[in-house]
Design brief:
The chain has 166 residues and is an alpha/beta fold. The protein is built from 4 helices and 5 strands, in the order βαβαβαβαβ. α3 (116-123) runs parallel beside α4 (147-155).
């Protein structure tokens, strides 16, 4: 019969004071953001969560190319690199006041063409939290969630915060 160990602490912690043990950093917070329906509550929640965790904020925006653009707006790019650049500029402009309000939060923006639900689920790999929104609307049938929120709740492998916003 083997004797129980006398020291229950891992051997590497015996000579280290608790103040010397490094903090385990949080992984990034991921925000799925629709630049056409952003919601200040949603953005503030994501920035505040990243600030509290002392982690970076990854903002994901995905867009779909549509070919039914009104003729009155010829200056708006329909597809290609011009549309991507326009989406990136819009996202940066939207986040600028929040980056100024939370200067301690490093922010990385990702804009890509495709389904937003796929982009958010893909970006969630290795995240500590995914933040998505649910627009509040008056409905006879009660509250509804969109495709992105549904995908996050069912396919993401980390905590998900669903923030209602207008």
């Amino acid at each position: 019969m083997r004797a129980p160990p006398t020291n229950t602490f891992p051997p590497w912690t015996v000579s280290i004071s608790p103040d010397e043990i490094p903090e385990t950093p949080y992984r990034d917070v991921v925000l799925g953001l629709d630049i056409h329906h952003p919601g200040d509550e949603l953005i503030e929640f994501a920035f505040e969560s990243a600030r509290r965790c002392r982690s970076a904020l990854r903002v994901i925006h995905a867009y779909r190319v549509t070919y039914d653009q009104p003729v009155e707006e010829p200056q708006v790019p329909v597809s290609g690199p011009e549309l991507l650049a326009a989406q990136e500029r819009a996202l940066q402009a939207m986040l600028r006041p929040w980056c100024e309000k939370f200067p301690e939060v490093p922010v990385r923006e990702t804009v890509r063409e495709g389904r937003a639900a796929t982009a958010v689920v893909g970006a969630s790999a290795g995240a500590s939290l995914v933040v998505v929104g649910r627009r509040t609307r008056d409905s006879r049938l009660g509250a509804h969630i969109g495709a992105v929120t549904y995908a996050a709740l069912h396919h993401v492998r980390c905590p998900v915060a669903v923030v209602p916003h207008n």
